[in-house]
Structure formats: C-alpha cells, structure tokens
Amino acid sequence: MNRMKTLRLALVIGMVVAATAALGAEPRPMAVINSERIAQEYPAMRDAQEQYQKFVQDLERELSLKEKALSAAIEELDSQQLLLGKDALATKTQQLEKQKAEYFQFREAAEQKAEAEGRARMQPILDQVKTIVERLAKERGLGMVVDSAAMTVLYVDPQLEITNDVLQALVRGDK
C-alpha cells in the first residue's frame, strides 16, 4: 500500500513537472502539510473528533442492546422449538424474522447516521484547512502542497513544511 502511495505521489509530481515544462513555465516549489498533526494539535479538530466518537459510542450502545434482544429471541425460539405447535412455531419464527429485519435496518441507519455526523462535524474544519492551504500556497507561489499523512513521502526538506503555518492560521481563526 505504501508503495502505491509513493508511486501515485511520484506520478503526480511527474505530471506537474511535465506540464510546467510543456508550458515553458518554471517549476514552482512545493510544500508539505501533515494532516494527522493538524488533527492532533488543532483543538477544534480534536473536539469534533471527540464529539463524533461519543456519538458513535452512543449508537454502538443502542445497537448492542438491540443485538442482545435479538440473540435472546433466537435462543428463546431454539429452546421452545420442540415444545411449540406448528402454528405457534410459525408465528414465533415470523416474529423473529421481523425482529432480524428491524435490527439490520437499524444497523444500516446507524452506519449512515454515523457517516453523516462525521461529515457534519469534520467538513467545516477540513474546508477551513483547505482554504488556508490554498491561500498560503498562493502567497508563497507554491505549485503543489502535499499531505504527508495521506501519502508516503521518503524525504521532505524541512523548509517545505508549512504545517505550523496552517496550525497558526487555524488558531487565529483565519478563513
């Protein structure tokens, strides 16, 4: 996987260099940010992640309760299967199938809710980071900014690192 990321990065850099050469333009410098560091050090991002984790834990608790109830219903049917008459067994089986369907519907809805909650909490911050990165890149005449956390980078000149500048802009409340 890391090799694929390195190959993708090399391909992107190669395409940018080739495109600038084809246009007769001078290659512009690039910079690097570390989104993992931003996630760890920017308080708003940490808060959003903590709130999201709490939301997911609440959903998981509710899902666990429904799963236990379903397991109990399955065990009850298994233990009564030989004692129930044909009609009673059919009714219990039908009720169990309905309960299973409701459980899986709830589980799917919970996954969708968790995904939507994650987007709602993180997207505004990610948009803010992207805007700041774009602004810093334009101010510095950068041709590319790479996220070192998303791709494997074998070497980064420390002068290309702009994560501190992004963090400072976030703390200042830049948009």
Share of residues in strands: under 5%
Number of strands: 2
The unreliable regions are none
How far from one another are the termini? 34 Å
Average pLDDT reading: 84
DSSP helical segment count:
5
Query: How does the helix and strand content classify structurally?
Result: mainly alpha
CATH architecture: 2-Layer Sandwich
Over the alpha carbons, how many angstroms does the gyration radius reach? 26 Å
For this structure, the quaternary state is single chain
**Which fold name fills CATH's third level, the topology?**
Protein Binding, DinI Protein, Chain A
Spatial strand order of the main sheet: 1-2
The percentage helix is over 70%
Count of the separate structural domains: 1
CATH-level-4 superfamily name = Skp domain
Largest sheet: 2 strands, parallel
- The H-and-E topology, N to C, reads as HEHHHEH
Global morphology: rod-shaped
- CATH hierarchy, class: Alpha Beta
Structure, explained:
The chain has 175 residues and is mainly alpha-helical. It has a single domain, classed as 2-Layer Sandwich (Protein Binding, DinI Protein, Chain A). The protein contains 5 helices and 2 strands. The protein has a two-stranded parallel sheet with strand order 1-2. Helix 2 crosses helix 3, helix 3 packs antiparallel against helix 4 and helix 4 packs across helix 5. The radius of gyration is 26 Å and the shape is rod-shaped. The two termini are 34 Å apart. The model has no long low-confidence stretch (mean pLDDT 84).
